[in-house]
Amino acid sequence: MSLSKNKFLAIFFGLFLFSSLAFAQRPIYSDSTSFKDRLYFGGNFGMQFGTVTLIDVSPLAGVMITDKYSAGIGITYQYFDDRRFIGGSSSTYGGRLFNRYNVLPNIFLHAEYESINFENYNLASERFERIWVNGLFLGGGYFAPFGGGRGGANFTFLYNVLHDNLRSPYGEPYVIRVGFVL
């Protein structure tokens, strides 16, 4: 398996299997709710150690604009190292903007624009080069609350409509995220 395929697989598994995405379910009862009370924070954090090491740190901040609509920003940093190859380490970084609309109390639609910088293998020049790639993720999900507080779990299913197999850090255009809010 080539180094580029290993990178794609590690990034794919790191993003989707070893990370969690946190969103808040904060009810907005009136327009008088303060901005501070409508803010929420969360993000991804994932680690994999061994022959292939992956560390993902992706915080986000959002604001409940209405009781059904929220928007926010996030940043991403990932470190990847594959000890099977000399020079098999790299960093991926970037940012994202997202929107979320609750169709039903526990069902939501999600849209996210992401710009990621990573080392991509160029087949024409037969070498790795650092490039920026944009993604537009559309989909939805389910929020499962637990306890009497604001905590719960999110199950999000997204599709990257801008996916390009030759210029993407993701192995597939489909994204599945499982996250928690405490």
UniProtKB/TrEMBL annotation:
Entry keyword set: Signal
Origin: domain of life: Bacteria
Signal peptide boundaries: 1-24
Protein name in the entry: Outer membrane protein beta-barrel domain-containing protein
Organism, as annotated: Algoriphagus formosus
